[in-house]
TrEMBL record:
Keywords: Monooxygenase, Oxidoreductase, Signal. InterPro entries: Cellulose/chitin-bd_N, GlcNAc_Chitin_IntDeg, Ig_E-set. Residues 31-196 form the Chitin-binding type-4 domain. PANTHER family: CHITIN-BINDING TYPE-4 DOMAIN-CONTAINING PROTEIN, GLCNAC-BINDING PROTEIN A. Coiled coil: none annotated. One of its GO terms (molecular function) is monooxygenase activity. This is Lytic polysaccharide monooxygenase. It holds the Pfam family LPMO_10. It comes from Kribbella sancticallisti. Residues 1-27 form the signal peptide. The keyword Transport does not apply. The keyword Metal-binding does not apply.
Length: 198
């Protein structure tokens, strides 16, 4: 009888410990990727691009420090959000990334798929300068640091599928668009790089 009671108490203790551990793990915050123009992460997930490493299974996870361009991921690591497991996203691959065709100066609808929407500060869109170095990993000096489109959310929670319409800058040839989704109540943002051609 005494042995059965000890086993029962041990079971209660293990159950309480398991409950404590499961409730102390932080909840998952926002995650997402751009589908228009298709991001490098999404191309990898689709299998359109091979040899992508881990990002092919989690295109929604390019999460790094917020505050771009003043802070955030280091230059040369913007597409991977500074995460070494996603470093393949920073490789220009000699211009082999597929591009989305855009019309210079025209209106375009940018789209995100959010697998875990979260309280949001804003979405911002940046584009490379004319004459940027297409052979080098993306840096701040290659980008126009004033976003050409900003969509404020003021802490609101976006839908799982969200679209933002705005006018793209006048450009010719191959460029990159960096989309930044800033989370309102964490220290992070999500970074998505898309290759485009005008």
């Amino acid at each position: 009888m005494l042995r059965a009671r000890k086993l029962s108490l041990a079971g209660v203790a293990v159950g309480a410990l398991a409950l404590t551990v499961s409730t102390s793990v932080p909840l998952a915050y926002g995650h997402g990727y751009t589908t228009a123009p298709t991001s490098r992460a999404k191309h990898c997930a689709n299998g359109t691009v091979q040899n992508c490493g881990q990002i092919q299974w989690e295109p929604q996870s390019t999460e790094g420090p917020k505050g771009f361009p003043g802070s955030g991921p280091a230059d040369g690591k913007l597409c991977s959000a500074g995460l070494s497991q996603f470093a393949q996203l920073d490789d220009q691959r000699g211009g082999a990334w597929p591009t989305t065709q855009l019309t210079s100066g025209a209106t375009y609808t940018f789209r995100w798929r959010l697998t875990a929407p979260h309280s949001t500060t804003d979405f911002k869109y940046y584009i490379t300068k004319a004459g940027w170095n297409q052979s080098a990993p993306l840096t701040r000096s290659a980008l126009e640091l004033a976003p050409f489109l900003t969509v404020p959310m003021n802490g609101g929670r976006p839908a799982n599928d969200i679209a933002h319409t705005g006018r793209v800058p006048n450009r010719t040839g191959r460029h990159m668009i960096l989309a930044v989704w800033t989370i309102n109540d964490t220290a992070n943002a999500f970074y998505q790089c898309s290759d485009v051609r005008f």
